[in-house]
Amino acid sequence: MQTIQSARSKVSEWTLIVLSAGICLFHIFISVSTSVGVMQSRVIHLFSLMLLWYLYKVRASQGHMGRKIIFTVVAVLVFALWMYYMTQTTREMLMDKGIWGISPLDMVAGVVLILLILETSRQSIGLALPIIAVVFLVYAVIGPYLPGIIAHRGYDLTYITSYIGWTNEGIYGTPIGAAVSFVVLYIIFGELLDKFGAGKFFIDIAYALTGRMRGGPAEAAVLSSALMGSINGSAVANVVTTGTFTIPLMKKVGYEKNYAGAVEAVASTGGQILPPVMGAAAFVMADMTGIPYSTIIIAALIPGILYYVSLAMAVYFEAGRLGIKPEESSKLQKAGAILRRDFYHLIPMVVLIVCLLGFGFSASYSAIFAIVSIILIGIVRTYVTERRFPWKEFRDVALHAAKSSIPVTIACASAGIVIGIVSMTGLGVRFAQIVFQLANGKLILMLLMTMVACIILGMGLPSTAAYVIAATVAAPALLEAGVPVLASNLFVFYFAIISFITPPVAMAAYAAAGIAEADSMKTGLKAFKLGIAGFIIPFLFVYYPGLMIVGTSTLETLYALLVALCSVFLLAAAFEGWVGVPLGMGLRLVMFLLGCVTILPFPIADLIGIIGTILIVVLLVFMIRKAKKAEVPAS
Comparing 231 with 112, which gets the higher pLDDT? Predict the structure, then answer.
């Protein structure tokens, strides 16, 4: 009996390995070949990952016969539905459906697919997204019975199923398209980097560079999370990856546990808004807007750096307030030594950036070159150090990359349901009209209302789904107000991401609180305070387009950067209450008000903010010198 169970376990393991490797190779293949049709590539992507999910559920149900039978039946159903969709999504069959409509069997298949996606979404990413999708599905049916501006003519089940389940406007729409074209490739890239040691390299180099600063471990958390978060594209995953190292270090040197968790949460969340990768959502943005990915990362560069500058200042000021001293140099590795030893970890990143910005390649082609470079490096490194071929590493990469792609894909499919309903009912246009009327055409009010809507829509959702839903529902309001496409999409993108550190559903903060053994709500509130720059920067690049570099002069960019730095410095110092010396409540209030005034889009406000910052800095220098003189004992 034991032998039979062992054989079954081996078969199950190899099934997962083969399917995972096949998924990775398929995505690499279609990025360099057009032999598979667009719709069929999306069908293969979605169903292969759904099948993989249920095979994992079957394997995890050993010893629970009832659950094992249920998950096995569902896995068989997914496979059967996959085969049916493959036969029905050829170019000729889709043309027939467009002319004659879907058949009764298509109708059943479409309904089953929608139910499967909702259930798989519940299992893999929680209740929030399936509930939102169900609300939108109900909205599509009850439209005629709703009041005023949100009412519509209503649609029957056949039309909804056809639109959502059989066209590229719903489940197989833009989010899944981006996942097929870009997202899985960058997940593979991130897994390869991590498996061949780049994750540890980033943490080591970050700590070597910042350890000699006051509050070094917190600064290391900021820098390492910036490096890792841009690649893996998940705030929670980044917290778990880097936080297990940085949070205990922060607590050890004297940071309070809620604060340590908050620093890691804010730093990990920011990785998704920092080039060059910016996670999966940025690829979806490129697909939805038609703006080249290279343009998006250029536009996001200065805002992303400002976010981290603000956080770095805040943790430095907090270290000073707590009296935390720098680490002893003898305990730290030297950055130069780390670079000389492990410089090759930077080569794939350089290849990626050169391909994207230097040669202007597409995001998928750039990913292929970066993947090839790290594969070659990994093979050489493993052979030189261990005299073997890295089969085990490649197997683990395939398994982890495919498994990591499941929640992203299911989130994209569920978000596709929402997009389809919004497109079908015209809800995006209606939302824009409502916001425009409530704001009476005033841009600042429209931005504030859109900010709140994006944070609410993004709460509890994966970043890709959060952006897709926010962009579909809220971005049209900003476009209606005359905000350019790039700025409006970056605006909703920022606030969809910022929902990860915004209570009451601050997912990244809660994950960090678990590692820090801290109170989740207190950690969330501290993360909200530390991430204040994330709430300011989107307003800045709407009113000061120079921050986005694209389409502006150098002078505009420098002016916008000066205004942003003044505001970020004033607010970070006001919240922390220490800049070389403790700050009184009156001075903190003045700094807070000046920081707010600086971001107002009026020349006089800019002038007040810049002059005020200069005067504050002069005052602080005087206070610090006076404090140092007071510390010197009289001779």
Answer: 112
Q: How far apart are CA 419 and CA 47, in angstroms?
A: 20
* In a domain? residue 532: no
- 496 within domain boundaries: no
- Domain of 599 in residue numbering reads as 553-635
For the chain, the domain total comes to: 1
Supply 46's token pair. Answer: 């979605």
Residue 5: pLDDT band with limits 50, 70, 90: low
Token pair, residue 338, equals 């780390």
CB-based contact 288:485 (threshold 8 Å): no
User: What DSSP designation does 355 have?
Assistant: I
Residue 151 CB neighbour total at 10 angstroms: 14
For residue 562, give every residue at least 6 positions away whose Cβ sits within 8 Å of its Cβ, in sequence order, or none. Answer: 610
Q: Decide if 414 contacts 170 (C-beta within 8 A).
A: no
pTM for the structure as a whole? 0.80
Whether residue 91 lies inside any domain: the answer is: no
Tell whether 605 is covered by a domain: yes
pLDDT of residue 205: 84
Q: Can you list the alpha helix ranges (DSSP code H) found in 531-553?
A: 532-543
Q: Which two tokens stand for residue 6?
A: 């062992």
Q: Any alpha helices (H) in 126-278, and if so which ranges?
A: 128-142, 157-165, 174-178, 184-195, 198-210, 216-232, 235-253, 257-270
pLDDT of 8 over the 50 cut: yes
Q: Which of 317, 326, 282 is nearest to 303 (CA)?
A: 282
Task: List all residues 6 or more positions away from 83 whose beta carbon is below 8 Å from its beta carbon.
Answer: none
Beta bridge partners of 74: none
pLDDT higher for 460 or 324? Answer: 324
